[in-house]
Amino acid sequence: MFHNRSLPRRILSRVGIGIGAAAAAILVMPGIAQAHITVQPGTAQGGGFSVIAFRVPNERDDASTTQVRISLPEDQPIGSVKTTPVPGWKITTSTRHLDKPFEMFGEQLDTVVSDVTWTAITGGIRPGQFQDFDLSLSQLSESGELVFNALQTYSSGEKVNWNEVSADPSIEPEHPAPILTITPAVAEEMSRHADGSGQASQDEITSTAQSDTASDWTLPLVVSGVALLLSLISTAVAWRRGWRPNSRLEVESATTREDVNV
Hints:
Layout: H1 6-33, E1 38-40, E2 43-45, E3 49-57, E4 65-71, E5 80-83, E6 89-104, E7 107-120, E8 130-138, E9 144-147, E10 149-154, E11 159-162, E12 179-183, H2 186-192, H3 202-261
Parallel strand pairs: 2-12
Antiparallel strand pairs: 1-3, 3-8, 4-7, 4-10, 5-8, 6-7, 9-12, 10-11
Helix pairs in contact: 1-3
C-alpha cells in the first residue's frame, strides 16, 4: 500500500501556472489599453504654453510606420505651433487662413498651423517599437479639451485614422483620437487654498500628488489582490483534496504494521 505524492505536486504545478498566467495578463493589460496614438502627458495647464508629445506605437507585425500626420483642432486655433528635430524624420507643416483673426500677445493672427507631418527618411517605426513626436503649443485656452486627428501610414500602404470620440467616457472607440485635457492654471487653484503668505500649503500639494499616484495604482492592485486570493483558495482546496485520502491510507498502513509487530 502506498500513497501518490505526485498528485498534489501536479495540482500545485497547475495552480502555479494559473497564477503566472493571471499575473502576466495583469501586466499586459496596461499595454493593450495604450496601443494607440496618445498625447503625453495627457493634461496641460491652461492659459500659457505647453510641450506635448504624440506617442505613436507600431501596431503591425509585418510593416513599419513611415508617416504620421497630426491635424490640429479647427474650432480652437493655436497661434504658435513649434516642432523639434526628430532624427530620421522630415517635418512639414501646413497652414490655414482664419475667417476671424484673434489676438495673441498683442498681435492679430489670421493664419495658423493646421497640420504637422512627420515622414520617415530611413526605417520608420518598426514592429514592436514606438516614437514620440514633440510639439510646443501656445497659447492654450484656460480649460477644456483639444481633440486632434492623427493619420498613421504604414510601409504596406495601409492608413489608419485615429479620430473617433466616444459619447460615453467609459467606452473607448476602436480608433480613439488623441486628446489633451486642459486644466486651470495652478496659480489660480493654489490661490484659493493659500496661507497667509500667499503660497499654497505644502501639505495640500503633497496630498494631491499622493492622491493622483494612488489612483493610478488602485485598479491594478485590486485586480492583483483578487487574483492572489483566488489562487490561494485554489491551492488550499487542491491540497486538501490531494492529501486527505492519503492520510487515511497512512493510518491503515501504520495499523497493519503494528499488528505485524505484535
